[in-house]
Amino acid sequence: MNQYSDSQRGSPFLRRLFIVVGCIVVAIIALTLFVVFKGPWDENSEVSESLPNDAVEEFYVGVSSLDVEANQRAREIFESLSEKIPNESAVWANYGIALLRLNEIDAAKEALQKAREIAPNDDRIIWLQAMIEERAGQYDAAIDLIRALNTPDIKALYLLADLVERTGRSSADEERLVLLKRILTQAPDNLLVQLSRARIAAKLQNKDELQAALQNLDELQASWNETALSKYESSTNAANSDDFRKVGREILMLENVLKPTPIYQQSLAAVQETNHTLGQPIRGFMNLAPPSVVVAEADRKLHFALQSRNAEASRLQMFWALALSGERHSNIVWNGNQLHIDNKTPLPVPSSMNQSQIDISSLLGVDLNSDFRLDVVAVGENGLVIYVQNPKGEFSSVIPQEELKDFFQQSWAGVWAIDIEADGDLDLLLSPPPSKEGQSETPATCQILRNNGDMTFSKISSLESIPPLRNLHWIDFDNDGDGDVVGLDTEGRLLIAWNERSGQYTSPEVIASPVTILSTDTADTDGDGIVELITLDDSGDVRRWSYDDTDKKWTTITLVHWNDIGELRNSSDWERINLRLADIDNNGAVDLIASAGMKTAIWLSEGTESFIQLTDTPDMFVNQVVDANDDGRLDLIGISKNGVATAINQGEKAYGWISIKPQANPNPGDQRINSFGIGGKIEIFAGQLRRTAPIQSPIVHFGIGENPKTGVARVTWPNGTSQAEFNLNSGESIIAAQRLKGSCPWVFVRNAKEIHFVKDFIWRSPLGLKINSQETAGVSQTEDWIKIPGELLSSLDGTYEIRITADLWETHFFDHVSLMTVDHPPSMEVYVDERFVPTSVPDLRLHCVTPPTPFELVKDEQGDDVTDQLTQVDQVYVDSFPLGRFQGVAEDHWIEFEIPADVSPDRSLCLIGSGWIYPTDSSLNVAISQGSFPKPHGLVLEAYEHERTQETTVVPGQWKVVSDNLGFLAGKNKTVVLPLPNPSGQSGTRRYRLRTNLEIYWDFLGWSVREDDTAIATNVLDCITSDLRYRGFSKLSAEDRRKPDLPIYDTIAATGPRWRDLQGYYTRFGEVGELLSETDDRYVIMNAGDEMVLKFPAQDEPPPGWTRDFVLVGDGWVKDGDFNTTHSKTVCPLPSHANAKYDREDSSLESDPVYLEHRTDWERFHTRYRTGAKVGH
């Protein structure tokens, strides 16, 4: 497909013809939009003039809020709009969606009923009403609404079939079969529906329908694997023998085998929403005038004022403008063997007498030491040099370690930044120059110089098979959440190495192209929210390359053709070639800028694939496109025949723009992503405009056309997490600061008043957790006990109800859950030691002690009195210790206390401590292990030995270690029980301190005396019902870096996916008690957003005066999606009690030992397949 500018289309007659035809097309489109937005239900619609200007803006901010699951914000916006424009049904409908997602069912029903009163025949509103009834369990009402749809599509018909099944009536199967056949009249090749038809026909023993369904399946076998073909053959054989029960079983197994395949996933997406987001927002006005066009008209009169200055042009090699401070751009000139940065003292660089060997990729601005200032890396024929910038803006060179001196002196042609191991700092990928003709030695390949985080570096073997490169891009092309490497080699071939996580990439594959590629860049040129690869080839075509992560194929179309490319190829200027993509006229669409030698061509976009070539372009080579003078317009940076060149943008249209400066969390105690989020992406919604841009520098610029503001900007950080920023005014530069995350299943309990968060669970058994860059922690502690205070859990309708939610980026495997009641006299407290000691078996027993007594005086490491913070559990923590560079690791800090003098030394004492820990994760552990950073250590108990005289020598007082392997708190709201030494055994000392460098925040500290455990009564209860279901994600308490994020159960923050699912099979919704009854590797597999509701039989009240507490007992594992966690993309390999190391390399299900032993569980329970597709709308 080619789109050419008017100047390329030939004769004047043809141009006039195109104009006439274009006018007719525009008229038809306008009429169509009128019909679509107005609709036949609009007899009483308002006139367009009655729509307030601010209402349009608010409406689209509200829609964008629904898109990113900012549902509370959306609720407030549409509630306000319902008062401003009460006769607009789309406002009421979107208001209802926001209320539905916030679980306010009755209010959502009222809002949607008002929407339907205004537009009684609109299928979208009727569909939303049906969804509400379905969520409320009113299946018959939902069925009636779906049947009231004017033109039900196949998704409506499929949901109707599902609802009919849920009613359980005797005719349900016959009704479902009719509905499925109705779907197949519209989509005969839908694999999912054909499988469902065959399964129901077998259940009904309808041989004719079964044979027809099997015949249709036979026609869909082209891409099936051997296992699927075998299951199909078994099904047909059983059908021929009229063994209908076996047919149903074999069809179910066939469907499970096919679920991971693209054809099945496509068929599923056609009939069902593949995520759990409740309700798709209505994006346009239904009763009022339709909004203006998405992309503004291109600024056809745009031109540039070329500013050139002599910089010893005979020695000038390249000119850059880099935001060295993260803000203002600095001018950097490579001149001979010196680098000139603004007016600073020139820096020596590894230059060459050959001017053409210094190219756009010879210099890199990158923050290597996480101080939010760009350092400078330069490469050339004579080696590699790294300059580090200090707070004053001065640069000093990095002296390489002895083992790297030869590496630094090698000849290099290009350097790029990627985070090879996703450990939060940027590494360097260096390309050698291409092999010279006749060179006999083995061709050189690219090398990785790993950043150890402390300004030392290591040469590692990853990506060694990539040949010399001309361009490189590090971005997620296959939508699995991690950055892939796409390169253009010096032979003009496109290469891609897919990210396999944990620093591993596939060998580079060639992306087939019929022509030689000259230059590449990345952008979202069609406004679909996906960043594509854009190339300039030697035929003059500029092409867009898109990767389909379902079909695993690249497709390409031609955007424009550069007619001058042939002439330039034969000129003396054919030395440098560059393609850049940016919205230089701010109309909201990405424009194309191509340079070769001293010639530049610019095509302005008017949306999708429509481009107009500018006739007035500067004579220069364009290296970069940046806002050089901070006026909101992008300028051209490069060189001309007269020296360094800046072409200042002189656009005529005063379109809006925003400038976003993504920043990692700048405070101590994080370091999970690189400073400016390089490798991530930003997606904006401004009115109806949608655009995505990769984060390649500290400043990301967007044009927004005639929109007064950007409703929402969604930042996806390079570690896969995301966040949203709202209401960004045009002409505004904003900083998008990264926010933090946590982990582990959450336990809630229900009483007569509320559903209350207790603490997290199975914290001790993380699968694939990296403890350094090479080693993975084993899992030998799969059983967990946590105490539930009796005042939080009470009997309701004869049961104790506990809810376990998966709110974070994890997969949970629950093998067993039970509840223990613990009754004890009032003179006693009972605790569980909720510590994690990695090298020890957990102390799974009840600790009976006297009620804890707070210490009379407690001091911190600075000698400050912190007694008041530690007298009761009240979420007032000791938090004054300095944080370290990485999340979870602080400077050494301690709590110092004394045992009262009147406590008898003969008593068995213990310390009771409550608090929480901010943990590290796999990526942080990898980063910490690479440099010379303090290694994390757990709690250490030390006793103070007073000054004493030994013979004639005075021995000063000093701290001595009592125990140095005490582990740490295993999550949030946890309590530890630590034995305290008998004072008589420590030279009579009663002074102790508890020391660590982990981020442990104490809430309470006291001492107790151990009591006889025979004075208590316990009873272990099994579940009577265990319901797995989808719930969504709880709102978290207000963010405070020094307090735990506590979930608020009653407020659902989001119903759609927040994280990329780990790919694989999860347990289907419904009763799962059979999987929880024993510890036997038959487990419930929970995904993010799932909830397990467990009910246990209530027991008779304890004896008068006694107290009842509870202990939740569980066995299982947790695997998170951190990029450095082993097998973090997939549910498999499946965990097993027989393999504590979790070291199985093969992640396929069919060969997994747990699957082979319990295969029928994947027929009966684990039938819910998730693809790991990207999060978003």
Automatic annotation (TrEMBL):
The keyword Signal applies. TPR repeats lie at residues 89-122. Signal peptide: none annotated. Keywords: Coiled coil, Membrane, Signal, TPR repeat, Transmembrane, Transmembrane helix. Residues 200-227 form a coiled coil. Pfam families: FG-GAP_3 (PF13517), TPR_19 (PF14559). The chain crosses the membrane at residues 17-37. This is Uncharacterized protein. It comes from Blastopirellula marina.
